[in-house]
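Researcher: Good morning. I'm working through a list of sequences from a screen, and I'd like to move beyond sequence-only analysis. For each chain I'm collecting a predicted structure so we can compare shapes side by side. This is the next one on the list. No need for commentary yet; just the structure.
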Amino acid sequence: MLALEDVTFAYAGSNPYCFSMTAEAGTVTAIRGASGAGKSTLLDLVAGFLAPASGVVRIGGQDVTALPPERRPVSILFQSETLFEHLSAARNVALGLPRPDAARVEAALAEVGLADLGPQRAATLSGGQKQRVALARTLLRDRPVLLLDEPFSALDDDTRATTRTLVRDLTLKHRWATVLVTHHADDIAAIADRVYVLQGGTLRAQP
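Model: Good morning. Structure tokens for this chain:
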């Protein structure tokens, strides 16, 4: 489980944010709000890219507020997933692993529906396939929190629907606490178990 307990943050010259929320394992929690409302700031606080002025961030009951990003058990998918274009899909999945294991990489690619594309260069992949490569990379890192920052926005309607379903299925299977930031009501309706609205610097749970 992910929990933010009265987490506050303020940029210079702006009003402070105050975030309190929970995201349960095996569920998708959506954060809805206007542009500039602070949705990406919230994700940055969870990931450790920003340090709160006060409050506590917990993952699995552990206080991770003081941990740097590289030590937090958090994965992030962005709107446009950046891969090393000259490397194969399999090499991109394996990057950063202390002991790359070809069998595990192949199994992760198969789980996201890319069983035959491991040798293919990332530059030749579609947007949806690149997001699946990023999800395969997440599988191998075994991190309980997945942050999604508008990950479906650049995809066509059919690819968007299948990728959403894949995220939902993997969240359930691997018991991730998935947090989705999006402007799109159809994304929320399709996969969110719980919705928070971010307005005026604070979060409130949507009934």
